[in-house]
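Q: Could you fold this chain for me?
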Amino acid sequence: MSAILDATAPVACTDCQACCCQLPVLLLPGDDPPGYYIDVDTHGSMIMGKADDGWCLALDRDTMRCTIYAQRPWVCRAFAMASDDCREVRADWRRIALTLT
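A: Sure. Below is the predicted structure, expressed as structure tokens.
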């Protein structure tokens, strides 16, 4: 069973499937990602852009790591590994994965 499906597995970004990288990321004052990663939502707010499949444009899909880690937005910095938010997103992924099997 993969770690993403195992609710008891320790949480570490190094072996995660980067489920947080599909969440919407609103850019806040002080955030400064490279301009080519920025998009505008339907409300006119600046957000991190998404690829056609919903993944963050800054995610390296080969390594599942952020390519702008040092410049990542505050929302990404605040989304701490193994935090309640992290575990909730991972649990949502587990539920989705279980319905697809």
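A (continued): Residues 20-100 form one domain.
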